[in-house]
Write a structure and sequence with these properties.
Number of helices: 6
Bound molecules: ascorbic acid
Radius of gyration: 19 Å
Order of helices and strands: HHHHHH
Strand content: under 5%
Helix content: over 70%
Length: 154
């Protein structure tokens, strides 16, 4: 009896998750919300590393390692978050049409972000401040290059 309730609870949860998945795939606003959240988490974890290097906030090696690994994880979530139908013609977004007009160039920018983020993790784990500063510069340049070409200026 108890087993059966657990089973039906599980199927309810699976069903709910599945339904959410379908909604996510079909509703451009949900896709935009998700990708903006990814970039928000990226910013909230990348910014403090730069601030610590500048001495604006207290340097914390363990926090840096954690934040760098979050940035790296976020970088792996960008690919696939700009499907057809989620551009400025279809929904409210700062993403420029160039993303869909120049998918190869956009793909290269995403790949750059992923690569520089891996370098950031390596630098964070090394504990070498100069290596970290170089990696932060490269990640920042990758953010900026993509924003310059593919994000609407506010
Ligand atoms: C950040 C942040 C960005 C990038 C970009 C780099 O900290 O929020 O969008 O760095 O400004 O030029």
């Amino acid at each position: 009896m108890i087993k059966r309730s657990i089973l039906s609870l599980t199927s309810a949860a699976v069903l709910a998750t599945g339904m959410h998945g379908v909604a996510h795939a079909n509703d451009p606003a949900d896709v935009v919300e998700y990708r903006q959240a990814v970039f928000q988490v990226t910013k909230n974890n990348f910014g403090p590393i730069a601030d610590m290097l500048k001495g604006d906030i207290e340097y914390d090696q363990e926090a840096i390692k954690k934040m760098a690994s979050v940035v790296e994880m976020m970088s792996t979530l960008v690919e696939g978050q700009f499907p057809e139908g989620t551009g400025p013609l279809e929904t409210e977004t700062n993403a420029l049409m160039d993303i869909w007009d120049e998918p190869e160039a956009f793909g290269e920018r995403i790949a750059e972000f992923e690569q520089t983020a891996v370098t950031l993790v390596e630098a964070a784990n090394s504990g070498d401040k100069r290596q970290l500063a170089a990696a932060v510069k490269d990640v920042g340049a990758s953010c900026k290059a993509c924003h310059d070409d593919f994000r609407r200026d506010d």
